[in-house]
TrEMBL record:
Domain Lipopolysaccharide assembly protein A: 23-94
Keyword Translocase listed: no
Protein name as annotated: Lipopolysaccharide assembly protein A domain-containing protein
Keywords: Cell membrane, Coiled coil, Membrane, Transmembrane, Transmembrane helix
Ranges that cross the membrane: 48-71
GO cellular component, one term: plasma membrane
Stretches of the chain forming a coiled coil according to its record: 73-107
Superkingdom of origin: Bacteria
UniProt key word Cytoplasm: no
Length: 119
């Protein structure tokens, strides 16, 4: 299984290198339209290779997706935290009740009673 993962990663890496080599041409990226940039006094434009723009778009899209999913799953994480706290509270309560019911008994007999109740 490990080798399949290595082969897959090598194929993905090779395809990314091929895309980068095929798209080395320079493109101009303008952050603002020319009319708005004139008000700022400087044109906000950069000359970048096309593959940098492509890979940058992919990375930004992935980051937006991860953040969106993290916000979407907030409700599920909050429910899990609440259930964990409730479970821990109930476990403490059960231990206290077992301790109270086994008060005055021999420790070995109390352990045997606990194991019989667990079955």
């Amino acid at each position: 299984m490990r080798y399949i993962r290595y082969v897959f990663m090598a194929v993905v890496g090779l395809s990314l290198i091929l895309v980068a080599l095929a798209n080395r041409g320079m493109v101009t990226i303008k952050l603002l339209p020319e009319e708005m940039a004139a008000y700022l006094g400087q044109p906000l434009s950069y000359d970048l290779p096309l593959f940098v723009v492509i890979f940058g778009g992919i990375i930004v899209g992935l980051l937006i997706g991860f953040v969106w999913e993290w916000f979407r799953e907030h409700k599920h994480r909050a429910d899990a935290r609440l259930q964990k706290r409730e479970k821990e509270k109930l476990e403490r309560e059960v231990k206290g009740l077992k301790r109270k019911s086994n008060e005055g008994k021999d420790e070995v007999l109390a352990l045997l009673d606990d194991s019989a109740a667990a079955r």
